[in-house]
Design brief:
Blueprint lengths: L1 E5 L4 E5 L1 H16 L4 E6 L8 E6 L5 E4 L10 H11 L5 E2 L15 E3 L1
Parallel strand pairs: 3-6
Antiparallel strand pairs: 1-2, 1-5, 2-7, 3-4
Pfam families: DUF7882 (PF25355)
Organism: Labedella endophytica
Keywords: Ligase
Length: about 110
C-alpha cells in the first residue's frame, strides 16, 4: 500500500501502489496544466461508509510514496477512464481498474 500525502501531511490517503501509479499520472497531467479539480472516492468500510473528496491544486503540496520500488504496468484503458473523469465537472472520481484479474481494486482510505 502506497500513500498520497496531501497538504503537508495533515491528511494521508492509503492507496494500493498500482492504483497510486495511475492516479499520479492523471493528477500530474492535470496539475501540470494548472487545472484544479476535486478527487473523490467512496470510503473503504474500515474507515466509514461515506465518500471523501479533496481539492487538487498545484499550490497544494502532494507527496506520492510507494511501498515497492518496481513501477507497475500501466493500463491505458484505466488512464483514459480516470482522465475522462478528471476532466468532467465532477472531477476525478476513483473507479476500479477495468479488466483487473480480481475484479476489485481497493478504494483509497483517508486518515487525518
Amino acid at each position: 500500500m502506497g500513500k498520497l500525502v496531501y497538504a503537508d501531511a495533515e491528511l494521508d490517503i492509503t492507496i494500493e501502489d498500482r492504483t497510486l501509479a495511475h492516479l499520479q499520472i492523471v493528477i500530474g497531467n492535470k496539475l501540470r496544466r494548472h487545472e484544479s479539480f476535486f478527487f473523490s472516492w467512496t470510503d473503504d468500510p474500515t474507515v466509514g461508509n461515506g465518500r471523501s473528496s479533496v481539492w487538487m491544486d498545484a499550490s497544494i503540496p502532494l507527496y506520492f510514496a510507494y511501498d515497492h520500488r518496481r513501477l507497475p504496468a500501466i493500463n491505458r484503458e484505466w488512464l483514459i477512464i480516470l482522465t475522462t473523469s478528471a476532466n468532467s465537472g465532477s472531477g476525478l472520481v476513483f473507479t476500479a481498474e477495468p479488466n483487473s484479474t480480481t475484479g476489485k481494486t481497493a478504494p483509497p482510505r483517508s486518515h487525518i
